[in-house]
Amino acid sequence: LAVGTQGVVYLAWSVGEEEAADIHFSTSLDQGRSFTVPKIAHQSGGHADAHKIAVDHAGTVHLVYAQSPKGPLGAYHIEYLRMRKGQERFAPPVPISSPPSQRFESVSFPALVVGGNDHLFVLWEIFPKASRRPKGLGFTYSSNGGQTFAEPSIIPGSLDPEQGFNGSLQGLLMQKLAANSRGDISVVNSTFKPGQRSQIWLILGHVRDD
After folding, report:
1. b/e string for 86-98 if b means 16 or more Cβ within 10 A?
2. SS3 for 142?
3. pTM for the whole thing?
4. Helices and strands (H, E) in the chain, number of each type
5. Each residue of 147-178: pLDDT tens digit?
6. Which of 5, 24, 75, 190 yields a CA-CA distance of 20 to 30 A from 156?
């Protein structure tokens, strides 16, 4: 759910474990009293899930989600969609995470926030093995409203095997990311090592325009 200028409400949702599940969305022009007929954000033929939606000051709608071309049990990557104010459809998707590699098989569960000057910040969970729990956090940002994104990176200190895996056990859909108008970024993450310890981490950073 996201609220834009003049009280316009945007709602997006996923549809479960279907092989070709896509992200759906609808819009309300009367502050949530009624909504338009649902549409598919992008019909890909793969499995889309774990989306986040945000609106910037110009009324542009931004959407990120995890996409698996081979269905729910395949490797995921993060895709980005943008719909400018006045448009009724999202532009074609743009992959913004690193492709699967020998080090990481999959990424999923992105977080999305809009910061100062309509900068976009995106965070996601890293899965060294697609069928196991995530370890580490990936990150990228856009300083031009989603036209281009920086090279993906790993949040420093988040990929420590001694800390166990990311949690909480039911918390992967929670918002772990925040940003302010100065480009300051806050990331909060929990880690869990069964039988030993669980911890909460606050990681602070800053993005410059240069």
Report:
1. eeeebeebbebbb
2. strand
3. 0.92
4. 0, 16
5. 999 999 999 989 888 888 997 666 788 889 99
6. 75
